[in-house]
Structure formats: C-alpha cells, structure tokens
# Entry
Amino acid sequence: MNVLFTYSILSAIIITIFYCILLLLPSSAIPPRISRRIILTGYAVSLILPMILIAIPHISPCAGTVPNINAVMIGTPIIGIADAGQPLSTWHIPSAITTLNTIVTLCMFALTLWSIARIAILKRSAMPCSIDGATAMVHHRDTLAPFSWGRDIFLHSDDAADPRHHLTIAHERAHIIHHHWIDILTGSIITAIQWYNPIAWRILNMLRDIHEYQADAYVLDNGADAYDYQMFLIEKTAGARFASLANSLNHSSLNKRITMMLSKKPRRTPRVRIASAAMIGALAIGALSFSGIAQVINDMSASPFDSETASIGKVKDFSLTVNTPATSTRLDEKPDEAMVEPEIKPEYAGGQIAMMKFLIENLRYPESAMKEKEQGMVLVGFNVDTDGSISDIHITKSVSPALDKEAMRVVSLMPKFNPGKQDGKAVKCVCQVPIHFKLN
# Structure
C-alpha cells in the first residue's frame, strides 16, 4: 500500500514536469503530432521511472533491508520527550491517506474495466457491415454518436444509412490508424493512479483534443470539403458519447477543432524551444532521482508518527518503534535530593538517527514472544558515565521477560555516548529509552 502511494506521488511529479514542458512550447507553432509525442513520452516516463526509483536500492525510497531483518523501513524521526508512564501513541494519519488512495485507485481501475466491458457487450450485439472499405459494427442504440475502439468502428444504424457516412468512416479510421485507443487507455491508467492530480486529467483532455485534430486533418487531406465537413460535425455534436475510453466523433470541443482546421500549418517547428524544453525536463527528472524527494515521500507514506515517537519501521509481521532518550537526569552526590537536568544532555555518538539505526540493526523480536503474542513498550533505563560508557542497565517498565531481555541486550550493545555536561564538566546521567514491540 505504501509503495503504491509512493509510486503515485512520484508519477504525479513527473507528469507535472511534462505538463510544464507543454506550457513552455508555443501551441500555435507545435503540430499536434509533436504535442502527442511529448504527452506519450511523459506517460511512459511517469509509469516506468517511479518503478526504477522504487526498485533500485541506491535510489529507492523503499530500500534499506538489513541482514536478518526483512523489509525494514526507516522513517523520518520526530524527536520528542516521552513520558515513561504513558504508552506510545499509535495515531496513523499516513496509513489513512494511503488506504484512501488505494481504495479510490481500485475504484478508478474498476470503472476503466467496466467501460471496456460495455464496449465488448455492444460489439456482441452489433452487426458487422462493410462500409467504404471498412468493417463497421452497426448497432441500434439510440442517440449514441459514432466512435472507435481498437480496430472497430461503431455506428448507429441511422449513421450507417446517412449519405455522408464516408466522413464518419474516414474520421474514425484516422483514430484506428494512429492507434489513439492505446493513448486513451494509457491516459486512463495514469488518471486512475493519479486521481487526485488535476494536471493528469487536464493532459488527458488535451490528448483527446489532439486526437480529434489529427482525425480532422486526415479527413480533409483525403479530399473532404472543409465547409461541408464542419457543418457535418455541427450536426453530430448532438449525439451522446459512449465511454470515456472511446474516441467519439463529438468528444472534443467543436470550436477548437474548427479553429484548428482554419489555422495555417506551421512551416517549421521551433527546434530550439523544443530542445530547451526537453533539456529542462531531463534536468528536472534527474533532480527527482538524486535530490532525495523519493525518500521524503516514502517517509510520509510509510511511517506512523506523532509528536512523541520516532518510527523505526516494520519487520515481517511486527514493528519496532524506538524513542530518542526520554529523560536525562544528573546523579547528585546526595541521592535524597531531586534530580536536576544537565545543561547538555548525553547524546549517542553520531546523533539520534544513528542511534535508531543501530537499534533497528540489532533488535530481534524473540520467537517465544511472537508465539505468545507478547507486545508493548519496554522502558530501559541506564546510566551514562562521565566517559560516555553505559552502565547499570535495568528495566523501568516491563512487558514480559523475553521482551525485557531483548531490550536490555540491545541497549548493552550500544557504543559510548557523548557524556552530559553541567557547568562545562562531564557528569554522570540517567537515561531511558522506550522500545515499543508491536505485532501486526
């Protein structure tokens, strides 16, 4: 689920980059075929590149397996001081977001499959007829405008009997020749994955317009009179559309199509601007691969977090959550006096993230505890001496003997800390580390 969310966000970023490239290009000087190629390239990159970013360990936001621990995810830590007397919170906003994303994505894919099924059902009930050298599927469904899907042209019986049916056939044949149905299917997959991204929907509509421009150009290039064809299109705009996947005769804005037919074809493509836009796109995608955006997105989608805990991640069927040192108090010479926090708290060598990494690399969920389904927070206390060494490791909050023993074992393996200081001098301090064992 988290991988799907990460994939979706990365794909949305990439498709947005290509949309910006389209905006940089002068629409009046770019032929529809060039715009189509840019969009299809954006579709291909947005589908493939996120898989590469996720799959390759060096740049994957989901990489980071540790020996003897499978699928370990290290999230962005949120540092805070935990109360030893309270259990760790399990407020999982990212889980709710990723669950919602999965549900909506599956619904969008279901709608796409339903559209394909409806076309298949219509094809079974239609009658194949040879019209102007093309095989058309003639049906009797009222008010349905002509459309094409795959290699098939679908016509209502009234459109087949229309003396101008050759215009309809030529128009739909153009969609088939250019394989526009593959574009629409790919765009539908993109919008299903990026259902929340308005740019993905905008690009799909742009692609539909481009298809109609190409189909109109094909009809005119094959000898149709421009005025008669435009009047023919105006009459056909009253028909209902079939499915969002199909290339329908009246899918695109008629005003834009007529404007495109009346406009002059550009003599030359502004290659410098296209090259510049392509370079910008390549640099942006390269930055996406190496700037750590993928890692940040994965941290958002993979880590349960709140204001008190720092998530370490999920291991097979259990998760380990480790807080940064919760409390740090100075040991006074007089034990009856209240403990005073040192000015500088003791710190793990390398910082808190390094400490969490050490713990996750060495923690093992005891098999006996897993069999008994034991889980909960173990609070481990220990002293950090003036030389940074760890001593007097003990349990201040117990869960079970097996979990207590494992928590104490991993704490005993930690290297020296940077000692706490008071008035510029190293002092002996007491620290606590809460470790939360949880079975899923």
User: Anything to note?
Assistant: Residues 57-93, 298-340 have pLDDT under 50 and may be disordered. The first strand starts at residue 127 and ends at 131. Residues 174 and 306 are 56 Å apart (CA to CA).
